[in-house]
Design brief:
- This protein is α+β, with helices and mostly antiparallel strands.
- It has 3 helices and 5 strands, in the order E-E-H-E-H-H-E-E.
- The protein is globular.
Length: 107
């Protein structure tokens, strides 16, 4: 089971495990990570699972498709290199230990 290191908006870290094939969004919701809602359930239609993937890991992911890029235009927090929708990042053993930062909500 791959592990995910989540850095929460307050700077604290939580490490969780999820089955391969699970999305980062589903793992976050299943483990009550603050700041990840996953309102649409992973249908790429709400952008409430915006995360920042650490640059060391971002190159290991498939490039975002057009639907994901369109939804990233609607995120509340700052866009960065590594900005992704967590629902579109599927975990596998090669991503064991991936570092995911949950952005603070814009105020």
């Amino acid at each position: 089971m791959p592990s995910i290191r989540f850095v929460l908006p307050d700077g604290t870290e939580r490490i969780v495990q999820a089955r391969a094939g699970t999305s980062v969004m589903r793992a976050a919701v299943d483990h009550d990570m603050p700041g990840i809602v996953g309102e649409c359930g992973g249908c790429v239609s709400c952008a409430t699972c915006h995360v920042w993937v650490d640059p060391q890991w971002a190159d290991r992911l498939p490039v975002p498709d057009e639907d994901e890029l369109d939804m990233l235009d609607f995120v509340e927090a700052e866009l960065r290199v590594g900005s992704r929708l967590g629902c579109q990042v599927a975990l596998d053993d090669a991503l064991d230990g991936i570092l995911i930062e949950i952005p603070p909500l814009a105020r």
